[in-house]
Write a structure and sequence with these properties.
The complex is a heterodimer. Chain A is about 30% helix and about 20% strand. By secondary structure, chain A is an alpha/beta fold. In chain A, the strands form 2 sheets. A 5-stranded mixed beta sheet of chain A has the order 5-4-3-6-7. Chain B has one domain: Glutaredoxin (3-Layer(aba) Sandwich). Classes of the chains: A alpha/beta, B alpha+beta. At the A-B interface, α1, β7 and α4 of A face α6 of B.
């Protein structure tokens, strides 16, 4: 039995959801992208201070994620308005989802939440069929980078080559 | 495949080769690989300290510079990196590198062009190469290699292929160099 409070583990179906997202508040969720890998990047809050911080780095790395046909969704408990200001200031073009009603509900369903009810710093890669392929819980103050995501996408692509072979 | 809260020491995945920009003796016992962004102020703050490390440990340290521009927040970072490559194609990479870090508030096209001219490089030719992104592939290759090695921001240093987790002040850099040299 998996720890009910821990981060969702590989092999489990990714819980379905939609949340209001940048830029226009439209509802976005992983189920809309079946047939493509989906990367969920849970993070505590917009406007954190480090140079090249996580969402900014992910925008810069988008061409590499797109090589695997992957969709990237950032998720925190910030509102769409806050997300929009953050996205504009950081040049972030991929959707940022507002997990704010009820606060942190989607993060909780993925086990990617803190005791305070905000999103933890966690990464989940969902395969094209909607199953969790990889997950990673980062220490709150450590930007987990892109390497783990790219390694997971690479393994997914290799597995598909073998099965379709 | 879940690795919760396991912090592994990141290592450099792309080995240093002769296509890298290197400064210092080729057989130096300590190689620092820097992933940097010419418009990043933290890289700008580390620059004089790295310079001083090379001066004080001239027989011990080699510095390799790789590009890691975060273009969405640093609009001039890519053109600066490409200008450095354009200078590099003329054997002048490090002079351009130094100028860029010494003029971080002057990376717009007009001032960049003046800098290129100051260094005695042909501004029209360099401008044209930057304009048609002649060196963009090289810059991108550095960036992609960086993210595969876990680079998550700038500057990121690897000291003999082990990621440096500390700060970038002179004392800390000298300490890691000396510890690595005697390891």
């Amino acid at each position: 039995m998996t720890d009910p409070n821990g981060l969702i583990t590989p092999g489990r179906p990714a819980p379905g959801f939609t949340l209001p997202a940048t830029p226009d508040g439209r509802e976005v969720g992983p189920g809309q992208f079946r047939g493509r890998p989906v990367v969920l990047a849970f993070y505590p809050a917009d406007f954190t201070p480090v140079c090249g911080e996580q969402m900014t780095l992910y925008q810069a790395a988008m061409p590499e994620l797109e090589r695997y046909g992957a969709v990237l969704l950032g998720i925190s408990v910030d509102s769409v308005d806050t997300h929009r200001a953050f996205a504009q200031s950081q040049g972030v073009e991929f959707p940022l989802l507002a997990d704010d009603e009820p606060r942190g509900e989607v993060a909780r369903r993925y086990g990617a939440h803190t005791p305070r009810g905000e999103a933890a710093r966690a990464l989940v890669v969902i395969d094209p069929e909607g199953t969790v392929a990889w997950s990673y819980l980062s220490p709150m103050d450590v930007n987990p980078g892109v390497d783990g995501i790219l390694d997971a996408l690479e393994r997914l692509a290799a597995d598909r080559r073998v099965t379709t072979g | 495949m879940t690795t919760p809260l396991q912090v592994t020491t990141a290592r450099l995945r792309i080995p240093v080769t002769e296509t890298d920009h290197a400064r210092g003796p080729a057989d130096a016992p300590v190689t620092i690989v820097e992933y940097g962004d010419f418009q990043c102020r933290f890289c700008g703050a580390a620059y004089p300290n790295l310079h001083e490390v090379l001066r004080q440990r001239a027989d011990t340290v080699r510095l390799v510079y790789r590009h890691f521009p975060i273009a969405n927040v640093h609009p001039y970072a890519e053109s600066a990196a490409e200008a450095a490559e354009s200078a590099g194609a003329r054997g002048r990479f490090w002079e351009m590198h130094d100028w860029l870090y010494e003029h971080q508030d002057q990376l717009d096209p007009v001032h960049l062009s003046l800098g290129v001219e100051q260094l005695g490089l042909p501004p029209e030719d360099v401008d044209a190469e930057v304009g048609r992104h002649a060196h963009a592939d090289r810059v991108r290759r550095d960036f992609v290699g960086g993210i595969r090695s876990g680079v998550n921001g700038t500057p990121t240093l690897f000291v003999n292929e082990v990621r440096h987790e500390g700060g970038y002040d002179l004392a800390e850099l000298l300490a890691v160099v000396d510890a690595t040299a005697t390891a």
